Amino acid sequence: MAELRVENLQFSRDDFRLQLDMVEIKSGEKVAILGENGSGKSTLLQLLCGLLQGHGTISYNNQSLQEIPFNKRAQLFSLLPQFSEVIFPFCVEEVVLFGRFPHAQGNSFSDEDKKLSEQQLEKLDLLHLRKRQFTQLSGGEKRRVMLARVLNQQAPIIYLDEPNSSLDIRHTLEIFELLGGRNETVISPVHDINLAERFFDRFLLLKHGRLLADVTGDQLTPELLTETYDVQVTCGTAAFTFQHQ
Ligand SMILES: Nc1ncnc2c1ncn2[C@@H]1O[C@H](COP(=O)(O)OP(=O)(O)OP(=O)(O)O)[C@@H](O)[C@H]1O
User: Fold this and answer.
1) How many domains, in total, are found in the chain?
2) Any domain includes 13
3) Atom 24 of ligand 1, nearest CA residue
4) What 3-state DSSP class applies to 166?
5) Which helix H or strand E contains 57, and what residues bound it?
6) The ligand 1 atom nearest the CA atom of 39
7) Which atom of ligand 1 sits closest to the CA of residue 209?
C-alpha cells in the first residue's frame, strides 16, 4: 500500500506552474528529487507538507492531507527546509530537543525525549557543540543541528531539502549513510547526482514543474540526465571517489 499518494496535483504561482499526475511512494523508500534550479523541487515539498495549497489530492495512508490536523501532521512527517534559522539565543541541545515538541506532553519534555535528543546529538557529531549558542555556529554546524532536530521528530516520512548543503564531504557521507540505514521514508531534493545515485533508490526528475521521469537507479541514464539538466552527461570514472572511513 502506498504511504504517500499524489494525484492530479496542480499549483500555479506567477508564471510558474507545477503539475504532477500521479506519484505513489511506499513506506521506507528513499526518493531523491532531481532537477535544475527553479524546476519546482522545494515547491513540491511544501505542497506535500501542506505549507502551500494546490489543486488535486495528496493523501497519507489513504487520508487526505487536508483532513489531518496540524498536530498529527507533525507526527506523520518532518521537514528540513532549504533555509532555516533560529534567531533566539538557544543552545544546540535545546534546538535539537525542540524536535520532540510533537510528542511532548504540554510544554515539558520526558526523559525519553531527552535520551533521544542525546542520541541525535551523538549521531550528528554535535556532542562537543551542545552548549554552544546556535546563532554562533558555522553554516555546516547549523545545518547538522537542524538535521538532528528534524530526525529527532521521529516522523515516518522525512522531507529534507538539500540536506547536505553547507556540509563537508565527511559529514555529507555520514548523513547519507545514516539516512540510508533508517526505516523512515526519505524524500529529498539533491543537487549532487553522484551522491543521489549512491544513496537513494528512486528518482523523481522534474523539469519546468513537470515530472519528466520516475525511475530507479539503474534507469537513471546519461540521456535522461541530459534531458533533465540540458548538459551533456557521460558515465565515466570520477577523478576522486570518497568513502567514509
Ligand atoms: N516565495 C516565492 N514566491 C514566488 N515565487 C517563488 C517563490 N519561491 C520560489 N518561487 C518560484 O517558483 C519556481 C520553483 O521554485 P522552487 O524553489 O520550487 O525551485 P527548486 O527546484 O527548488 O530550485 P533550486 O534548485 O534553486 O532550489 C521558481 O520559478 C521560483 O522562482
Assistant:
1) 1
2) yes
3) 37
4) coil
5) strand 55-60
6) 21
7) 14
* CB-based contact 232:226 (threshold 8 Å): yes
Instruction: Find the 38 Cα to ligand 1 centroid distance in Å.
Output: 5
Is 105 within the bounds of a domain? no
Expressed as residue numbers, the domain containing 222 is 2-85+156-229
How far away, in angstroms, is 39 Cα from ligand 1 center?
7
Mutate to test the pocket of ligand 1, among 9, 15, 16 (most ligand atoms within 8 A of CB): 16
Confidence of residue 42 (pLDDT cuts 50, 70, 90): very high
Q: Per the domain annotation, does 38 fall within a domain?
A: yes
Kindly state whether residue 40 falls inside one of the protein's structural domains.
yes
Average pLDDT for 111-135: 95
Regarding the beta carbon of 40 and ligand 1, being less than 6 Å apart is answered: yes
User: What is the Å distance from ligand 1's center to 97 Cα?
Assistant: 30
User: pTM of the entire structure?
Assistant: 0.94
Helix (H) / strand (E) element for 187: namely strand 185-189
**Structure ipTM:** 0.98
Q: Any idea what the CATH number is for the domain that residue 192 is in? A: 3.40.50.300
Closest atom of ligand 1 to 191 CA is 25
214 confidence band (pLDDT: 50, 70, 90) = very high
SS3 of residue 75 by DSSP: helix
Rounded distance from Cα 163 to ligand 1 centre (Å): 17
Does the CB atom of residue 38 touch ligand 1 within 6 A?
yes
Other Cβ atoms within 10 Å of 64 Cβ, number: 11
Q: Tell me which amino acid residue 216 is.
A: T
C-alpha to C-alpha distance for 90 and 133, rounded to whole angstroms: 6
